[in-house]
């Protein structure tokens, strides 16, 4: 399904999309992203011995806060009221370099949204892990941030395949 850019008017000016004619539907989105950390950093995160405290607990709160403030960060996003927002982590140990995957899930009833909020939440959660651990590990890499699933609205249900 291909459509034109919706954030530009006929004159090419950036505009906020008019959603007033849309129906309110339940909308959900899940986004995922990853950060690689070294073995020492992972042990500190898991053992709660990182100098700045509970890394994943703080990252969870930061991600939720960021998701709720997406409209303040991305100029043409609509402010949305959430019914639910979660950040979860999955740790995969792999010798010297391990992977922490963050997943942000958002649910709301509205005329637009959820994808950008989930992507923002997962991004800030991973940035928070980086910030809290950078003194221990400057080799960390954040990546593979992507929309994993969305439902609701006129485009319906989307589930990513692969990656």
What is the top-level CATH class?
Alpha Beta
Query: Can you tell me the residue ranges where pLDDT is under 50 for at least 5 consecutive residues?
Result: none
- The CATH topology turns out to be Alpha-Beta Plaits
| Strand residues, percent | 25-35%
- Structural class by helix and strand composition: alpha+beta
Strand order of the largest sheet: 2-3-1-4-5
Q: What's the name of the CATH homologous superfamily?
A: Molybdopterin cofactor biosynthesis C (MoaC) domain
What coarse outline follows from CA principal-axis ratios? elongated
Number of strands: 5
The tally of helices reads: 4
* Helical residues, percent: 25-40%
Give the ordered list of helices and strands: EHHHEEHEE
The overall pLDDT, averaged over residues, is: 90
Question: Any idea what the radius of gyration is?
Answer: 18 Å
What features would you describe in this structure?
There is one protein chain. The protein has helices at residues 39-47, 55-68, 70-73, 115-133; strands at 25-38, 84-92, 97-110, 141-151, 158-159. The chain has one domain (25-150): Molybdopterin cofactor biosynthesis C (MoaC) domain (Alpha-Beta Plaits). It is 28% helix and 31% strand. It is an alpha+beta fold. The two termini are 22 Å apart. It has a five-stranded antiparallel beta sheet with strand order 2-3-1-4-5. It has four helices and five strands; from the N terminus they run E-H-H-H-E-E-H-E-E.
Please describe the topology of this protein.
Layout: E1 25-38, H1 39-47, H2 55-68, H3 70-73, E2 84-92, E3 97-110, H4 115-133, E4 141-151, E5 158-159
Antiparallel strand pairs: 1-3, 1-4, 2-3, 4-5
Helix pairs in contact: 2-4
């Amino acid at each position: 399904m291909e459509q034109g850019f919706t954030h530009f008017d006929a004159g090419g000016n950036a505009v906020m999309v008019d959603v007033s004619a849309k129906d309110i539907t339940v909308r959900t989105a899940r986004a995922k992203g990853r950060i690689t950390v070294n073995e020492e950093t992972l042990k500190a995160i898991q053992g709660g011995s990182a100098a700045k405290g509970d890394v994943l607990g703080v990252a969870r709160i930061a991600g939720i806060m960021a998701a709720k403030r997406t409209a303040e960060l991305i100029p043409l996003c609509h402010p949305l009221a959430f019914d639910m927002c979660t950040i979860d982590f999955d740790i995969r140990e792999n010798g010297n370099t391990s992977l922490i995957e963050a997943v942000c899930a958002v649910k709301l009833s509205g005329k637009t949204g959820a994808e950008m909020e989930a992507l923002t939440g997962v991004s800030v959660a991973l940035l928070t892990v980086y910030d809290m651990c950078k003194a221990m590990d400057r080799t960390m890499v954040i990546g593979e941030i992507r929309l994993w699933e969305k439902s609701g609205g006129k485009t319906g249900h989307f589930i990513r395949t692969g990656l």
